[in-house]
Design the sequence.
């Protein structure tokens, strides 16, 4: 699935790390790259490279933290939000295709079970509560 995801995201000129960064900044404006790394389980170096590429493309913007000069906050730009939406739709389509071999009740069961496991192992990787019913495409 990871290979399929990487291949599909290439059509949007995104890596999986960039996709995860875009989604997390969209959900949590002002988040730092270090926090994204913790939430996604990626190295700070990989996350930093992904964020730098997104900033260079004008999809994310950096701004100073109001009380901590060492922390840089990230915000998503309008073009970044549009690309994040397109990427989310693409990932949802991939998920639908991958789960098509299962009956609807099995799809619901596996989705619920995977969310429970993720909530236990890394709850910060999940999108805000109101998005959890939809497939987020982010781990």
Sequence:
């Amino acid at each position: 699935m990871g290979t399929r995801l990487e291949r599909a995201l290439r059509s949007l000129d995104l890596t999986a790390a960039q996709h995860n960064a875009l989604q997390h900044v969209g959900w949590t404006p002002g988040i730092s790259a270090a926090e994204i790394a913790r939430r996604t389980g990626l190295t700070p170096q990989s996350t930093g490279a992904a964020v730098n590429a997104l900033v260079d493309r004008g999809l994310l913007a950096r701004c100073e933290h109001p009380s901590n000069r060492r922390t840089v906050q990230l915000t998503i730009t309008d073009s970044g939000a549009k690309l994040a939406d397109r990427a989310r739709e693409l990932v949802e389509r991939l998920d639908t295709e991958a789960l098509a071999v299962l009956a609807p009740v099995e799809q619901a069961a596996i989705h619920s079970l995977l969310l429970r496991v993720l909530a236990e192992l890394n709850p910060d990787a999940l999108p805000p509560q109101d998005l959890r019913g939809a497939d987020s495409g982010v781990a």
